[in-house]
Structure formats: structure tokens, C-alpha cells
Amino acid sequence: MISLTNRSKIVSNKVMTPWEKVYIFAILGGMWITLKHLFKRKATISFPEKTRAIANVWRGQHILKRDEQGRENCTACGLCAVACPAEAITMDAAERKKGEEHLYKEEKYAATFEINMLRCIFCGLCEEACPKEAIFLTDKLVTTDYNREGFIYGKDKLVEKMDNRIDISQRQKKSGI
Ligand code: SF4
Ligand code: SF4
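Above: the input record for the complex with iron/sulfur cluster. Below: its predicted structure, written as C-alpha cells.
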């Protein structure tokens, strides 16, 4: 069979020499490699105590933005769900009632809005498809969980909190860390 890469090796079953049978040299060689790595700069960091700098356009957990008056921008048009290649977004639309003008910007709003973070591939197409500047990806990591239900993010996790507004202006810039 022709190899598709040059990584394949031909394995031989040659008999070991007496020198090779004395494993102590192989063990010492292994210990020398370990010892060298003890004094090298570590490749890992102690997350979450330490974090690495990430690009402004890095794509993490989504947020559903509110406008300056605190009203939800999303009008439940469904364009983000249609654009999503992973079919991770679902929603139910509802009509805004009289007296709810301070809650929802448009006459139609998302009564439920869910993103399945296990399906999401963080491509950002939902962000690009949204005509209302309602959905953005942030630099937040999606936290781990012990069950699948924990990865279905509803409005309780997605809608921006009034006392913790998220600045997405850096994402509008083209480049940079
Ligand atoms: S980031 Fe991509 S995969 Fe994730 S919800 Fe948006 S469109 Fe779907
Ligand atoms: S987030 Fe944007 S694209 Fe998605 S339903 Fe809401 S308004 Fe439409």
C-alpha cells in the first residue's frame, strides 16, 4: 500500500544485541530527557488562576445584547438559526404586549432562545447573520459540565445582565490581540 504521508516507519523484528538488552542505558536516556524538561519553560499554565492573552476576535460563549435602554435587541427572526451550520440554535417567537416596550426593542421577541454548546463550533456565522446586532460571541469560555443538559444555554445564561454589560466593541475592530 502506498503511504499518503512520509510518517510511516518500517518496523523490524531484529534480535536485540546484548548491549541493548541491558535496559539500564535506555532507562538512563529516558531519565536524562525528563531531567532536561524539568528546567525548561513550562508549556502549560495553571488555569483558571492564570489566563493567556487572546485575540479580540476570538470566538467564545455567545451573548444576546440589550440596547442602551436595556431592551433585548433580538427580534426572533431566526436568521442566526438558519445560518448556523451545526443547527445549534432554536427559539420561540412571541408578540410584545402593551406595557412590555421597556423589555423588548421590537414588536416580536424571543420568548425562548437556546444554543446547544455541544453542537456549536464557534464559527461566528450567527453573529454575522444577525440584522439586529443582537447576538455576539465573547471571549468567555464555555464552562464544562457533568451532563448534557448543562450545555443547553437558555436566555438566563445568554441575555446580557444589566449590571454586567459586555463590551463587544473590540470585536468590531479588524485585528490585534
Ligand atoms: S457560532 Fe456557529 S455553530 Fe455556534 S451557534 Fe453560531 S452559527 Fe452555530
Ligand atoms: S439573534 Fe439576531 S438573527 Fe438571531 S433571531 Fe435574534 S435578531 Fe434574529
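Notes for the reader.
Strands lie at 62-64, 89-95, 108-116, 135-137, 152-153.
The mean pLDDT is 91.
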